[in-house]
UniProtKB/TrEMBL annotation:
GO molecular function annotations of the record: ATP binding; ATP hydrolysis activity
Protein name (Swiss-Prot/TrEMBL): ABC transporter ATP-binding protein
CDD domains: ABC_DR_subfamily_A
Membrane topology qualifier: Peripheral membrane protein
Organism ancestry: Bacteria, Bacillati, Actinomycetota, Thermoleophilia, Solirubrobacterales
Main localization of the protein described in the UniProt heading: membrane
GO CC aspect terms: plasma membrane
InterPro entries assigned to the protein according to its UniProt record, in alphabetical order: AAA+_ATPase, ABC_transporter-like_ATP-bd, ABC_transporter-like_CS, ABC_transporter_ATP-binding, P-loop_NTPase
Nucleotide-binding recorded as keyword: yes
Domain ABC transporter: 4-229
Domain of life: Bacteria
UniProt keyword terms in alphabetical order: Antibiotic resistance, ATP-binding, Nucleotide-binding, Transport
Subcellular location: Cell membrane
Pfam families: ABC_tran (PF00005)
Species whose genome carries this gene: Solirubrobacter phytolaccae
Amino acid sequence: MAVIEVTDLRCAYGDHLAVDGIDFTVERGEVFALLGANGAGKTTTLETLEGHQAPQSGSVRLFGHDPRGERRTVRRRTGVMLQDGGFAGELTVRETADLWARLGTRKGDVTSDLERLDLQHRADVAVEQLSGGEKRRLEVALAIHGDPELLLLDEPTTGLDPESRRRTWRVIAELVDAGTTILLTTHYLEEAEALANQVAILRDGKIAVAGTLGQVSAQLPARIAFRTPTVPLPPELAALRVDSRVGELILETPHLQPDLARLLAWADSHALTLDRLHARGGSLEDAFMEVVA
Ligand SMILES: Nc1ncnc2c1ncn2[C@@H]1O[C@H](COP(=O)(O)OP(=O)(O)OP(=O)(O)O)[C@@H](O)[C@H]1O
């Protein structure tokens, strides 16, 4: 049985349909990243999985259970981040973590939770005195308490400096190695690339593109770029041309290897050096830009 099963989910605020008929499943041990521009419906989907929101129609199942109707059963196995404003600002970091641990049913060492997110030296500081990035790390520390089977993470690294982000990725990767299933939302495509095996890109509450990272990237053409040569390109390559900015020429092709070989042969025959030549396959960023453009 899938850990998460979402079937024809619709969620509305008044008459505004924020999630408009989405389906996906997440199997045990997978990391599933929900991507999309602001307002695409990521948080609404996550809040429905957390049981904070009721679907307008369709269904959401975690471990085969309804996260609203069978909240206790689901919560025992699921780590979630505390909602915005859920902290009592005057409590210290350790008091907050202790309280959270007592409210839940999973056993675990709060000190080690704080250490994993590099917050041990902030343990006696009031939560209201934490920086934005430290607060976000505390939210992640609470979510991972007791090594849940499933983690639901809403933008786990937003506002973190690059080192803290990488550290958080390492913590998440360790949990995945230990068998945790993860669904996360993020605006950082490199985060999805670093962590996820499945992605779905939402647009206006619908899934526009979904699949493994490889499948999503492979749907987009490859790109070859180089500094503009002074000699005109042969027609079959000139037809691939999509853009030329600041002296760089970009060719898009679904057939990277033969077209790159053709380009190099042409450059050779004209004794040309193609400055700053680089070639790459389609990427998650290309897929994302295609969806949100
Ligand atoms: N409490 C609310 N009341 C009314 N409309 C809401 C509410 N929360 C979200 N919406 C609307 O629902 C849609 C989806 O919002 P949601 O927060 O799920 O998007 P998101 O993809 O998480 O966006 P972001 O990347 O900005 O966090 C948006 O149009 C948003 O304005």
